[in-house]
Every structure is written in C-alpha cells, then in structure tokens.
Specification:
The complex is a heterodimer. Chain A is an all-alpha fold. The relative contact order of chain A is 0.15. Chain B is mainly alpha-helical. A two-stranded antiparallel ribbon of chain B has the order 1-2. In chain B, helix 2 crosses helix 13, helix 4 runs parallel beside helix 7 and helix 10 packs antiparallel against helix 13. The longest helix of chain B is centred in the first third of the chain and has 48 residues. Chain B is flat and about 70 Å long. Chain B starts with a helix and ends in an 8-residue tail after the last helix. Classes of the chains: A mainly alpha, B mainly alpha. The interface between A and B is large, with 96 and 99 residues.
Chain lengths: ~280, ~325
C-alpha cells in the first residue's frame, strides 16, 4: 500500500468513527425533540396539580402520580441510603480478607439484575403475605434496586479520601469509629450524595417492578398498604390506551419525567466535577 | 532560654495520647461500629440470597409440574394450565442478538472516536450526552417506540424490505410495525450508551506505550489503533459487549411496548414476538391460578440466572483489562 492510500484510509476511519459517535447520540436528541414537540403543549399548571380525568373529559393531570413516585422513592431511600452507605464504608475501610470481595462481587452482580426481577422478589415477600398491592411493596422493590448502586458508589468515594486524614484522626487519639464518622464520611460526603442522586434518578424512571407491586391508582394515595400511583406507571397506562387525549398526557408525563431525571443527573455530575465518578 | 530539644519533648508529652485513653475510647465503640458496618455489608448478601431463594421457592410448583419441559416446549396456555417458556426464551435471545448486531459496530466506533481520535474539546460534552442517553427511562423509549419508531418501520422500512428481500424468511410476511425488528432496534438504542462508555474506559486503560511503539514504527493513527490498541483491549471490549447483552436481556418496558406480545416462534423479523421480561410485565397481575404465577416466577428465575451468568462473565473480562490508576479521564 502506498503511503497516500494509508493516509486516506486513516482519514476515512476517523470520519467513520465520528459518524458512529454522532449516531450514538442522535437518538437522544431525536427522543428529546419529540417529547418537547408532542408533550410541551399538554404541560400546564393543571397537569401538576390535578388528578387524572376519566376518558373523554379534557384536562386533568398527574399530581397523584408525582406524589406517589415521591412517596415510594422516599420509602426506598430510608431503607437503601443508610444500608448502602454503611455497606460501602465497610467495603472501603475493612481490612478483612474474604467478606469484602464477596460483597463487592454480589453488589456488581445485583447491579446487572433486571429490575423486573426485583419486582418479583418484592411481590413474593410483601404482596403475597399482605394479600394486596401496596406502596410499601413498590418502595421495597425500588430500595432493592438502589442498594447495590449506593454500596458501590459509596465505596469508591470513601476510597478517594486521603489516608493522611485518617492518620491525622487516629494520631490525635480518636477511636476508629469516630474517625470514620467525623473525618472520613464528611470528606466523602459530596461523592456519596452523588451516588444517592444517581440511584434516585435510576429508580425514578423504573416502571416494570412497580407494575405488580404498586399497581397504580387513579386517586390520591390512601396509605402505605394500598395501591399507589407512580409517574412511569401513569405514562405506560396512557401510552397503551387507545385514546388520543391520553397519548398527549403520556408525552407530557414523559417530558416531565425525563426533565426530572436529567436535572438530577446533571446535579450529580456538577457535584463531582473533577472527581473520579464511580460507575 | 528553652532549647529546641526540650520544647520538642514538652510537645510530645502534651500531645501524644496515652495508650490507655485511646484503648478506653475505642473499646466499646470500635467493635460496635465494625459490627454495624459488617451487618450492612451482609444486607447485600442477604438481598442476593433472598432473591434467589424467593424465586426458586415461588417457582417450585411450576418446576415440579413441568420439569425440563418448561424450557423446551412452546405451548403457553394459561387456561389449559400448560406452560412452556420456549417462545419467550427465543424472543429474548433473538431481540437481544439483533440489538447487538446493530449496536456493537456503532458503539465500538464511537468508543474509538472518543478515546483515540476526537479533539479534546469534543470528548466531555459527547461523553456527557451518552451518559444522559443511559439515564432515559425505559418507558420513555417505549413511548417513542410506539408513536414514532413503529409507524416509521411500518410505512417506510418494512414495505421496501419485504418487496426486495421478501424471499428470505427473515423479511417475509406482512409488516405491522410492531414485532421483533422494532424490539431489536429499540434495544440497540438502549444498549448503545452502555457498550460505548465501557468500551471507552477499556480503551483509555490501554497504556500509551502501545500507541507510541506503533506510531514510532511509522503507523498511521488508524493502524496504531488496529494493531496495538484494539488487540490489547480485546478481552475488555468483549466484556463491554457482554455487558450490553446483559442489559438487553433484562430490558422490559420498551420491548413490551413494541414487540407485539405474541408467544409464537417465527423466523421472520416482521412477526410479533414475546420476551421473558415482557411476559412477566404483561401477565403477572392477570395470573389467576397458583400454577400460572409459579410459571411466571419460573420465567423470572430463568431470566435472573441468564443475566447473572452474562454479567459475571462481562465483569471478569472487563476487570482482566483493569484500568490502572489515573487512566480514566
């Protein structure tokens, strides 16, 4: 091959690779564009403050679904954040030989488990014994999804805390647990918060595990032991219904959901600017 | 005038904690705190074990009733109490492989561009957009699939494909828009960001000496990538692809919304299909008999085992390349 031909191939490959990168991000722009185009007109104050209307009546909103999502994410957070953070601290700080490696591997494995499988798990341990779908079951399913994510990000963030800080704490005579609580955790706080935000952004859009745990509800929430609405569930219900008006509501709901998810992801990114972010 | 030696001595006396104090402060607190941390770590183990145990327990009725026939027969008839999961296994595999077929070349190209070729100012924003793509909820992809992708396939893609390539069984039959092709396409879009970002990290972990050696011998940029960078990162890249496969296998909502949901095995990509995840999503709340629920949990167990195997393999491969400290951007 002549040097000219080799250079030409080199340039062609560069262009091709750039086109691939463009092709990877094209769907994002396409989908976001469609959401704006189809959904923006249906997003108004009513959409955030009203209950869904029955078929045929115009207007109505998804206020109950937004509240329901917040309740279940809150429930999941109460359970998953302390467990996840403490578990992550253990992985990073423990000098044990065997348990950390096993836990780290299991957390990675759980990160790859389809969310619908966590839904089945929550169904078997909450819905079957209680004999009804509930906010509790939905929240638990989301917590199961959050725990491995938080464990792994918290671990990586605690690992980034310089050893000099720990030694300084131990050097002035603090016991290990005080060093961890008062020196290491505050130093890793921004990163841990990011991990939590990432986990929240991930479960905020989860639909599959809620189909048969939270079930959905067209009214305001009626207690943690009752079926409850959630924004992704509402979008799904609207999308597969045969009514034009509901389709518009689905687009609007998706626009709201994706905006929330993007904003939380963006916040997480800004919080860890310049840091190594755990995947 | 106090000389410096006595000052230092004085300081040591004041500031060095007496061992007795230190021991007392940590005597109760440390073991307690360590116990707390260990309990939290065990929660992960319990979660994994409980997940497996619950699924095995709940599906035991179906496993007892059908045994191995559960995965080899294709009759799914809840009314007659016949449950064979083969159509779902087939649908999951075919839609996922179709997704990889489309996504792998694109995402490897994008990863090569981002790690090797792109100007420095392009990398952060594009990497950021790819992360955003991974954050789009599945149900939003499904919505877009129903109202944009499916009509487009039905009106613009399937008629010409059927006309010119209809003799192949792959593109035969009427095109409804919904079906295996739509599922594969939407899955490919969904796994693109995962494969791209992991592959990018793998390539960034390739030592610079590899590139420099090839370039020093007079290779062009592409030749250096081809002979020095890609072979070095090969196992990691395979790991990245497997990670994408793991995602595709378990993806639920978007696929459920566009695949057509019919438990049949057809050679045509135009035909409606069904996947393991979508049959659970669709039928779980409708399952009336205990055996029906048990069969659906059995499908879930199958899905769990398959995704665990694929993901564990992917992790091992990616780890084996191993990013040295500071290699990530």
């Amino acid at each position: 091959m002549t040097p000219r031909a080799r250079r030409r191939i080199d340039r062609a490959v560069s262009v091709l690779a750039a086109l691939c990168a463009a092709a990877v991000i094209a769907p994002l722009l396409m989908i976001f564009g469609f959401l704006l185009y189809q959904g923006a007109s249906a997003v108004n104050v009513d959409f955030f403050t009203h209950l869904p209307k029955p078929v045929g009546e115009p207007g109505g909103g998804v206020a109950n679904a937004i509240v329901g999502s917040l309740i279940m994410i809150g429930l999941a957070g109460i359970l998953a954040v302390p467990l996840g953070v403490l578990g992550g601290v253990y992985l990073a700080e423990s000098r044990d030989r065997r348990l950390p490696g096993g836990v780290r591997f299991l957390a990675d494995v759980l990160n790859g488990v389809p969310s619908i499988v966590f839904g089945i798990f929550a169904y078997t341990i909450v819905v079957i014994p209680m004999r009804r779908f509930s906010a509790l079951a939905g929240g638990l399913a989301l917590a199961f999804i959050m725990i491995p994510i938080i464990v792994r990000t918290a671990e990586e963030m605690v690992r980034l805390v310089p050893n000099a800080l720990r030694e300084a704490g131990l050097g002035i005579g603090l016991p290990q647990w005080k060093v961890t609580l008062h020196v290491v955790l505050p130093a890793a706080r921004a990163g841990i918060v990011t991990g939590v935000i990432v986990a929240v952004a991930r479960v905020a859009g989860e639909t599959a595990p809620l189909l048969f745990t939270a079930l959905g509800n067209r009214f305001w929430h009626q207690g943690l032991d009752q079926p409850i609405a959630a924004l992704p569930l509402q979008i799904y219900a609207y999308a597969i219904a045969p009514y034009e008006d509901w389709h518009r509501q689905a687009w609007a709901g998706a626009l709201v959901l994706i905006t929330l998810v993007f904003l939380t992801s963006l916040a997480a990114r800004l919080a860890t600017r310049g840091r190594t972010v755990a995947r | 005038m106090a000389d410096s030696a006595s000052l230092a001595q004085e300081a040591r006396r004041t500031w060095t904690p007496r061992p007795a104090t230190r021991r007392r402060a940590g005597r109760v607190g440390d073991p307690l705190f360590r116990g707390l941390l260990r309990a939290a770590a065990w929660a992960v183990v319990v979660l994994a074990g409980g997940l497996m145990a619950a699924l095995v327990w709940e599906s035991s009725a179906a496993i007892r009733a059908f045994g191995f026939r559960f995965v080899t027969t294709s009759t799914w008839d809840p009314v007659a109490g016949e449950f064979g999961a083969l159509p779902f296994i087939y649908g999951t595999l075919v839609s996922s492989l179709l997704a990889l077929l489309i996504a792998v070349p694109l995402s490897l190209g994008a990863a090569i561009y981002l790690s090797e070729l792109a100007p420095a100012w392009v990398r952060p924003p594009v990497s950021f957009l790819i992360e955003m793509l991974a954050a789009v909820p599945s149900v939003v992809y499904g919505l877009w699939g129903i109202f944009v992708l499916v009509p487009w396939l039905r009106d613009w893609v399937q008629p010409p494909l059927g006309r010119w390539l209809g003799v192949l069984p792959l593109f035969s039959g009427p095109g409804y828009g919904v079906g295996m092709l739509a599922a594969g396409l939407i899955l490919s879009i969904m796994v693109l960001p995962y494969i791209t970002s992991v592959a990018r990290e793998v390539l960034l972990a390739v030592p610079n000496a590899q590139r420099e050696a090839a370039l020093g011998l007079g290779a062009t940029g592409w030749e250096a990538i081809r002979v020095a960078v890609l072979p070095y990162g090969r196992t990691g890249l395979i790991g990245a692809i497997l990670l994408g496969l793991g995602r595709a296998l378990g993806e639920t909502m978007a696929v459920t919304m566009v695949i057509g949901n019919r438990p049949a095995i057809s050679a045509s990509l135009f035909a409606p299909g069904y996947t393991m995840a979508s049959v659970i999503a669709n039928e779980f709340t409708e399952a009336t008999s205990d055996l029906y629920v048990s069969a659906l949990v059995g499908v879930g167990l199958l899905l769990l085992v398959v995704t665990i195997v694929v993901n564990a393999l992917a992790r091992l491969l990616v780890w084996s390349v191993g990013a040295p400290a500071g290699a990530r951007e």
